[in-house]
Design the sequence.
């Protein structure tokens, strides 16, 4: 991040041609590219192409109402060998005022010249828009998939989590990018609740003012508004934070919200007022792992049946928050434990084998230390990289 140049000779970069994604043929190439560059037999689960097309849509994705992005594919000898996005996130700039552009969807064959060409191209695009550096990968923001997988390659990603080739992080660092933050994911068995969680939760429930209620799906928008308000208050001081809006969650949930159940979400309340929440979602990657990203002709029927009848055995808890005034206190620890205990017990009742807590910032040392001690080591670690620009751009 100290003004370093991206490495690689002009001759090696010249062998790679970078083109902008424009038109249906280029978009199809973009969507298929991870399966081209990833090693055979990897744990990667192709996301539904319909979902990915919607994500890149400038008319349907609310990201494009406030921010700008472009998408690029690398070709060598006419064959696709990598991809990347570059984005100017106005919400990030308004919150942090750091002049940092962002890149995302960084995928490359195991070839340094390809990685260099992609990262150079993204950097140039961002410099042209006045950015002083770049961080990533963010697909498309910190509130979506982000990071390069650096540990846990044998584990298939859960819903809305990325997957990377084992060489991806090494290529980024060899290109002159420096690690800036790690993100940890934990997979927790629903069969055993650690004694410390039970003890803390019991201390919470001994207080008559504390209660837990389920998410009221009948008042979906109003409940989302409460959740977003708590989340933004809870995460405000965290590294890289940008606020959520209700429309963001509507988009991220997409058609999945039709299948969400009230028991997936929990609010912990004091005197009936929500002060914290936990929200879990079905791990649809478990269901679609053999769909190859396609819903037609019959996969959509299989997916609807599996979600409607809750025929999944794993889940992910992507949203968790506790109002700032309770963080770092013994009462806050009890509130957190109560949320976790009730959520796990409810999940177990629906026969889920495990649930993934993801992700946790590595800078949150107290929580990382607690989770490592009582839930085991992380199942995956993701890494964000960055650099500042110099005259070489």
Sequence:
């Amino acid at each position: 991040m100290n003004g370093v140049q991206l490495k690689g000779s002009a001759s090696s970069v010249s062998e790679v041609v970078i083109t902008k994604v424009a038109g249906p043929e280029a978009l199809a190439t973009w969507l298929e590219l991870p399966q081209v560059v990833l090693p055979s037999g990897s744990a990667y689960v192709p996301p539904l192409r319909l979902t990915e097309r919607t994500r890149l849509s400038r008319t349907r994705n609310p990201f494009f109402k406030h921010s700008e992005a472009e998408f690029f594919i690398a070709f060598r000898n006419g064959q696709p060998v990598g991809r990347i996005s570059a984005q100017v996130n106005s919400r990030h700039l308004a919150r942090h005022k750091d002049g940092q552009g962002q890149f995302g969807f960084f995928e490359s064959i195991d070839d340094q010249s390809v990685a260099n060409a992609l990262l150079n191209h993204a950097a140039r695009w961002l410099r042209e828009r006045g950015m002083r550096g770049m961080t990533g990968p963010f697909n498309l923001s910190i509130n979506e998939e982000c990071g390069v997988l650096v540990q846990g390659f044998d584990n298939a990603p859960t819903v809305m989590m990325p997957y990377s080739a084992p060489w991806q992080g090494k290529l980024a660092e060899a290109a002159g990018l420096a690690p800036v933050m790690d993100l940890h994911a934990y997979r927790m068995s629903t069969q055993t609740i650690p004694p410390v969680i039970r003890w803390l939760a019991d201390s919470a429930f001994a207080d008559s003012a504390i209660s837990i209620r389920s998410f009221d799906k009948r008042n979906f928008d109003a409940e989302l508004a409460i959740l977003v308000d708590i989340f933004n208050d809870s995460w405000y001081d965290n590294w890289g934070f940008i606020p959520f809006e209700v429309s963001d969650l509507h988009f991220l949930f997409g058609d999945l919200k039709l299948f969400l159940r009230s028991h997936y979400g929990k609010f912990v309340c004091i005197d009936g007022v929500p002060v914290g929440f936990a929200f879990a979602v079905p791990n649809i990657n478990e269901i679609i792992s053999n769909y190859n990203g396609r819903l037609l002709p019959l996969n959509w029927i299989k997916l609807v049946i599996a979600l409607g009848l809750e025929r999944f055995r794993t889940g992910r808890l992507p949203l968790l928050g506790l109002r700032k005034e309770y963080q770092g206190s013994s009462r806050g620890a009890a509130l957190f434990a109560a949320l976790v205990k009730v959520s796990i017990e409810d999940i177990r009742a629906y026969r889920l084998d495990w649930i993934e807590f993801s992700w946790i910032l590595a800078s949150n040392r107290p929580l990382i230390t607690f989770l490592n001690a009582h839930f085991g080591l992380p199942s995956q670690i993701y890494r964000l990289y960055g650099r500042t620009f110099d005259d070489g751009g």
User: Anything to note?
Assistant: The domain at 191-352 is CATH 3.40.630.30 (Aminopeptidase). The chain has two domains: 10-183+383-388, 191-352. The CA atoms of residues 212 and 268 lie 4 Å apart. The longest strand covers residues 178-189.
